[in-house]
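In the current project phase, we have settled on a layout for protein records. One protein thus recorded is set out beneath this paragraph:
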Amino acid sequence: MSELRVAALILGGAIAVVHAPGLFAPELATRWMAAFPRNKWMGWFLTVIALVWSAWLVMQMPLGRFDVYKPLLYGIGPIVFGLIVWLMDELLAARALGGLFLLIPSPLLDAARPHESDWRLVVSVLAYGFVIVGIMLVLCPYMFRKTVAFWSRSPAACRVWGGAGVLLGVAVIALALTVY
């Protein structure tokens, strides 16, 4: 099984699962998404994931003469986490989600790069879409609330958003199973 197939299966499954509550339980999805940006524990959890992933990526990078400083990441990581939750606690969950959206494209693009089919561009476009959304969430986390308010203005609108996301996820899974 190719790397792109595995990446597309995970990506499509994640997209479908995240959007399914909007399709099947719009009231519950609306309440949860409205509360998400200020959820302290979710913000801490996503921040830990983003920091560990970032530290792991830096540990894998060749940094030349700065390689000797890599072991300092083990001590700096907890300090950075403490500073983030202390100084950036406002809408931290949305910011941390944006940070993850900035990290997710790397493995997707690495998997898509060697594939020869032009259909690999679907995963590449989605990856760059994640980058754009990630930048927006890190810089303007209040946009998460505005977007949720727009898509959840009625149960029907939430179902449309959820249905579109589920269809996108299923389409990516179908590409993974048939093309990649």
